[in-house]
Write a structure and sequence with these properties.
single chain; 2 domains; 280 residues; N-terminal domain of MutM-like DNA repair proteins
Length: 280
């Protein structure tokens, strides 16, 4: 199984498990072991902005984690493929791929580790949000009050490409990635190659429900772990045990028994059932 980027359920699980440990803690000092991961501002300014401040809260937007500090600065993490953010108690073993260490006032640590070093970190003021183009252009999130049937219908109506790339585009729906898109399309019976402007109203209703379901189920199960992903406590998710199509190519469909196929759609590996998801 190839490495996959944490999606909304994984990042939300990290947020929930970390918040109970880091909220109201002060960041005593920072060890930046790999400065190039700090994309804005300069690593020395990053240290100055973050060190000595209390962590008010940890929130999430799409696949971004946002640590709100009491000086108004937001320390932002984008984990990308293999980034991990874990709370490590004093005296316990640390990830050998640790890259940035936040030393807390209770002598515990918040450690950002990254095997392939593709993640990015920022420390921005509210007026600098445009420094992270992928963050301020995000669309609505599943499970939010803004993600309505009308919102999805209007977005699809104005799109002419295939449905899978549409769902992967963070400007349309924030937080979805390859796993949960494949699962959503399966549950709604939509072929990943179907054109957006040909999706019927009934299909849109099914898709809207399916997206909320797969994201909700993924959060319930603590995320999906195939290789690198762990939550803020260092524990793996279990949602990989409840998938219908993703990672199940050449296996029988759990609904109809047809063999799951894997194809490329928009350059991305895509698992689907050719019987349950006939192309319209």
């Amino acid at each position: 199984m190839t490495t996959i980027m944490p999606e909304m359920p994984e990042v939300e699980s990290i947020r929930r498990t970390l918040n109970k440990n880091i909220r109201d803690k002060n960041i005593k000092s920072i060890n930046i072991l790999l400065p190039r991961l700090i994309k804005f501002p300069d690593p020395d300014i990053y240290k100055h902005r973050v060190t000595g401040n209390k962590i008010n809260n940890l929130t999430r937007r799409g696949k971004y984690l946002i640590m709100h500090l009491d000086n108004g600065v937001m320390a932002i993490f984008h984990l990308r493929m293999t980034g991990r953010l874990c709370y490590v108690k004093k005296g316990t073993s640390e990830d050998k791929y640790k890259r940035i260490i936040f030393n807390l006032d209770n002598n515990d640590k918040l450690i950002y580790a990254d095997t392939r070093t593709l993640g990015t970190l920022y420390a921005i003021k509210p007026e600098e949000i445009n420094k992270i183009s992928g963050l301020y252009t995000l669309g609505c999130e599943p499970l939010s009050k803004e993600f309505t049937l009308k919102y999805l219908r209007e977005k699809l109506k104005n799109s002419h490409g295939k449905i899978k790339p549409f769902l992967l585009n963070q400007k349309n729906i924030a937080g979805l990635g390859n796993i949960y898109v494949d699962e959503s399309l399966f549950l709604s019976g939509i072929n990943p190659k179907q054109n957006c402007n040909t999706v019927s109203l009934n299909q849109i209703k099914l898709l809207h429900t399916a997206i909320n379901k797969v994201i909700g189920d993924g959060i319930r199960d603590g995320g999906t772990t195939f290789r690198d992903y762990v939550n803020g406590d260092g524990n793996k998710g279990t949602h990989q045990n409840n998938l219908f199509v993703y990672g199940r190519d050449k296996m029988a469909c759990q609904k109809c028994g047809t063999i799951i196929e894997k194809i490329k759609v928009g350059g991305r590996g895509t698992c689907y059932c050719p019987k349950c998801q006939k192309l319209r």
